[in-house]
Amino acid sequence: MRKVLYILSQLSDADVEWLARAGQRHAVAPGAILIEEGKSADALIFVLDGEVSVATAGLGEVTRFGAGEILGEMSFVDKSPPSATVAATAPTQILAVDRETLARQLEADPGFASRFYLAVAMYLSVRLRATMSRFGKDGADAHDELNLELLDTVHIAGARFDRMIKRLLGV
Question: What is the CATH class of 3-169?
Answer without folding.
Answer: mainly beta
